[in-house]
Amino acid sequence: MRISPVFLNLYKNQNLVQSGTAVQSTPPPNAAKINSADSVNFSARIHEYFPKKFLKEILMCGLPCPVCGKKLIPLELLNEPAVDALRLFDKNIHNMTEINKLIFFKMAELAPAHPTMNMQAILKMLHAKAEKNLIREQFLILDELNFLCGEIPKSKVPELHSLLSETKGILYQRGKQENKKFKRKSAISRFDDFALSLSDDKVRLKIMNAIRQLPTSDNNTNAFIVKYSSRSPEEIGMKLYNKDFGTMEHIIPESSGGRIVIWECSEDNGARGNKPLNMQLSQKPEMFGYLQKHFDRLIQIYYEDAPTPYLATQKNLLKEYIFTAKNEFAIASRQVLNIDISALGDIPAFMIIREIKRIRDMGCTQYLRNLYKLLQEK
Ligand SMILES: [Zn+2]
Fold first, then answer.
1. pTM for this structure?
2. What are the residue boundaries of the structural domains of the chain, listed by start?
């Protein structure tokens, strides 16, 4: 069956998207191209089709990860007072790094006495002392570098001295002047530059190794507290343990025209690296079962009277999300993954028309035919 060009032009030239309904805007066909703006506006554009609030609330209703099946934790819960938020980690403590464990227990010790404070507020209480200790540790590293003055050419000593005193100055100023904040990375690169100007390989390596002893939030609790006491509770939680949290992922990469995101665990999201989700489908056949469970839960939410007060008013949007996500999986897997959403009931014609328009923009003619057939049945 061939789709008549007249039919396609009809949708190209007329605005058939009903006003006041779910989809807020239809991106132009060339929106799929990769450009530098993509990376800049990434988070804003994820929510182009389905509002952020909507996506967050479906996660709050509890969803299994579509890749591994484990229950996803909504990041939002990390904003609760620390006494409650820290309970989310109960099952995961043994998987934390040593530093993260120490931070966890420090917060757990303080939290009950401060029942309204979130994790950030608890870290803030520890900040002043941690900063003092951190500066002491950083100075020790810089003093070690000072000892190396005896091993470099005399003509280079003043340069190393001024680099050291400048760095110490920035450390003392920490937090007082925003533009003079100490950055470990830039300190390392400045000392590396100096080391590279030396001809002696041995001393060059010594300098490069010594400056890398500066503590990081991965290996030092003071550095963790100083860095993360200015971060949101969500970031703190992700840093402590980030495997079960729900994160958003495009089904089809945005650069290929994909517009729909689904929730999956941060472990699977992180493990995939730059590989798109649709590539994983062919390599992980067991994913189909989890994916179906993910959709079954979404359909269950659809039938709940009031899963959340907001979602109770967004039934059509939820139906469209399920229908649209199913379509993207079918396209992504070349229709190998035929997710069963029949329990969702009838899909209104206007949703199918909107999908035809969207998928036409993606250039997936094969799937377009199926949708067209579905429309004809109505
Ligand atoms: Zn997972």
1. 0.66
2. 5-75+243-376, 96-232
